Amino acid sequence: MSERPLAEIFDQVSNWGRWGTDDQLGTLNLIDPAAALRAIRGVTNPNPISCARSMSPLMTGGSSPLLHLMTATGHDAKLVGKSIAADWLGFSIHGFGLTHLDAPSHEAWNHKLYNGRDASLVTSAGAGWGSVELAVEKIVGRGVLIDAPRARGVPWLEPGSVLKPDDLDRALAMQGTELAPGDVLIVRTGRDVRSGPKDINLRKDGAAGLDSECLPWLHEKSISVLVSDVVHDPLPGTNPECDMPIHAIGIVAMGLWLIDNAHLEKLAAACHEQSRWDFLFVSPALPVKRGTGSPLNPLAFF
């Protein structure tokens, strides 16, 4: 991992005040409507590819388990006339299993949220600053996949593997892809090839991720949203200052929106088949009032 102090990286990538002192959107300000329209108009296949993991009590990734209870079943059905079946779901939005969006309210650094607001604005009533509901209509634009295992000639990245800016540049060059301001960057590590039919426990078994020096790279490239099939930071963490600096510094300093635990195998296969690594990416958040995150079903269109 980078040996630079995180405070130095924080200052280098900070977007505090960039879009005004009251801004809560952070890097979502970088999504250019014109670029989004170009991505939409470039769609030739109306069939979307989902980038969401299955929501199941059996697929937790090492997070709190998802609870799925039936409140009405077919055993209660009437012999004549209408009946219903119904469910109740309970889950932790954050963690290593559920595909979800992290809002600016999700992380604090030195008791500050994005744009310098005090962390105490997130209370037992929810997020009074940087709520996920801000992203209900915002994540529609050009997505670009970096297939990191393909660039290294391996089926997946081993736990604890670290991607540095040179690795990202090399992968983009191999794919013949250039990034544009406002792009949604999607980094595949091969989690689901590594795990096979059963999901792995990222908390126990570890994961690949980005070096903290990728934060200035992301800032320079004007990335609006960062997506991965893991949680962006290598696990176990190796930085003595913070075990997950991509989360902490990315969210608090940059206002960077993160999508964790995407399922990227179908998308990677489609990119490889078409030799095309950019597409329309659509991933609206649920309108969770005062929420620090939201479950998602991100869609890619070619």
Describe the structure concisely.
The chain contains nine helices and 15 strands. With 302 residues, it is of the alpha/beta class. The mean pLDDT is 95.
Detailed description of the structure:
The chain is 23% helix and 19% strand. It has 302 residues and is α/β, with parallel strands linked by helices. The strands form 4 sheets. The protein has a 9-stranded mixed β-sheet with strand order 1-15-13-7-9-11-12-4-14, with helices on both faces. The longest helix has 11 residues, at 165-175. The model has no long low-confidence stretch (mean pLDDT 95).
SSE order, one letter for each helix or strand: HHEEEEEEEHEHEHHEHEHEHEEE
**In whole angstroms, how far apart are the ends?**
35 Å
As an assembly, this protein is single chain
The CATH C-level class name: Alpha Beta
Short descriptors:
Glucose Oxidase, domain 1, alpha/beta, two-stranded antiparallel ribbon, 9-stranded mixed beta sheet, 302 residues
Helix/strand layout:
Layout: H1 6-13, H2 33-41, E1 49-50, E2 67-72, E3 86-90, E4 100-102, E5 122-123, E6 126-127, E7 140-147, H3 148-152, E8 162-163, H4 165-175, E9 184-188, H5 191-195, H6 202-205, E10 209-210, H7 214-220, E11 225-228, H8 245-254, E12 257-260, H9 265-274, E13 278-282, E14 293-295, E15 299-301
Parallel strand pairs: 7-9, 8-10, 9-11, 11-12
Antiparallel strand pairs: 1-15, 2-3, 4-12, 4-14, 5-6, 7-13, 13-15
